[in-house]
Design goal:
Strand content of chain B: 35-45%
Number of strands of chain B: 9
Structural class of chain A: alpha+beta
Strand order of the largest sheet of chain A: 1-9-8-5-4-3-2
Order of helices and strands of chain A: EHHEEEEEEEEHH
Largest sheet of chain B: 7 strands, antiparallel
Order of helices and strands of chain B: EHHEEEEEEEEHH
Structural class of chain B: alpha+beta
Shape of chain B: globular
Distance between the termini of chain B: 31 Å
Distance between the termini of chain A: 29 Å
Number of helices of chain A: 4
Number of domains of chain A: 1
Strand content of chain A: 35-45%
Helix content of chain B: 25-40%
Oligomer: heterodimer
Number of helices of chain B: 4
Largest interface: A-B, 25 and 25 residues
CATH superfamily of chain B: START domain
Helix content of chain A: 10-25%
Radius of gyration of chain A: 15 Å
Largest sheet of chain A: 7 strands, antiparallel
CATH topology of chain B: Alpha-D-Glucose-1,6-Bisphosphate, Chain A, domain 4
Shape of chain A: globular
Strand order of the largest sheet of chain B: 1-9-8-5-4-3-2
Number of domains of chain B: 1
């Protein structure tokens, strides 16, 4: 189900990444590569754990320019190498429901080959239109778009 | 699995039935409808797409009222483990008011016996208490007994 258009519940950004899906997949699912592009600079990743399997931990420790750190615990729902990764902030490792999720989404990263490159789509699905509107208001398109641009810069350096 | 006493409810039962058959009864609509809700309530609809992100949809008839339960499988390990939830519907669409995530494990005890563990996880203490008040232990216990009897009838 790649690249469905935006609806009231669904937010999406799409970019062309100049590297094939197999390379982009490793940038997405290996912590030492993912940390190089997953948060918008100048925010940095101070620590990262990703277990690409159902119920796997997806942990990012973000370090702000002023030095403060913010942990984000999410969970992997499904990993279909090298095409689709699903994750969520509604649960944490081992299927523990989150009482008050920050955004309340299930996200799909879809990688579709386009010549020698990859069409990257990041799609966040929400339960309610107001959840999606709040997520959009908190900078979804800017934030997820910026990191996709960072991926486009980083991914070709891993092409081998 | 670490339990949170405020949020998690769990039933453990040693069953005189092989885990392959218990798993099959959990994942096949033709079998599931016979034991999945306490009698005389009935399962009137069952659609199971047994893979992560696949639909796990059932409808019960309880005292003439239809209750729809639509969810997805989160994890599927044949004969060992099934995890499903109503927190999403098929293909990972989040649901507005999730009730629970269920984790079932089937542990082989040898000699055709199985340790059957059913855990219901809730996102807050109020939901867990509501499930307790609805009769979790009685209900899931009755269903476990029905499942064991049904499987023994298959052998």
């Amino acid at each position: 189900m790649p690249a469905s258009p935006e609806t009231a519940q669904v937010l999406q950004v799409t970019r062309l990444i100049p590297a094939p899906p197999a390379v982009v997949w490793r940038c997405l699912t290996e912590a030492d590569r993912l940390r190089q592009w997953w948060v918008p600079a100048p925010v940095e990743v101070a620590d990262m754990v990703i277990e690409p399997q159902p119920g796997g931990r997806f942990y990012t420790l973000m370090r702000m320019p002023d030095g403060t750190e913010h942990p984000v615990e999410m969970m992997i729902l499904q990993a279909e190498a090298p095409r689709r990764l699903f994750f969520t902030d509604l649960m944490t490792r081992g299927f523990v429901p989150v009482a008050r999720p920050m955004f309340g989404f299930a996200a799909e990263i879809a990688l579709i080959p386009e010549g020698d490159a990859t069409r990257y789509s990041a799609i966040a699905r929400h339960a309610r239109a107001e959840d999606a509107a709040r997520h959009a208001g908190m900078g979804f398109h800017d934030g997820w778009g910026t990191v996709a641009d960072q991926l486009a810069t980083v991914a070709p350096t891993f092409a081998d | 699995m670490q339990l949170d006493p405020e949020l998690d409810l769990q039933l453990v039962r040693e069953m005189n039935a092989p885990r392959e058959l218990l798993y099959k009864c959990w994942t096949t609509p033709e079998h599931l409808v016979h034991w999945f809700v306490p009698k005389p309530h009935k399962v009137t609809y069952c659609h199971l797409d047994v893979r992560p992100g696949g639909a796990c949809n059932t409808t019960f008839e309880v005292d003439g009222n239809l209750m729809e339960n639509n969810g997805v499988y989160l994890e599927v390990i044949p004969n060992e483990k099934l995890v499903f939830t109503d927190a999403y519907t098929a293909d990972w669409k989040p649901a507005p008011e999730p009730f629970m995530t269920a984790i079932l494990t089937f542990e082989d005890l040898g000699n055709g016996r199985t340790r059957y563990t059913a855990t219901a996880r809730h996102r807050n203490a109020g939901t867990a208490q509501a499930h307790r008040d609805m009769g979790f232990y009685d209900g899931w216990g009755t269903v476990a007994t029905q499942l064991e009897e049904y499987v023994q009838g298959l052998k």
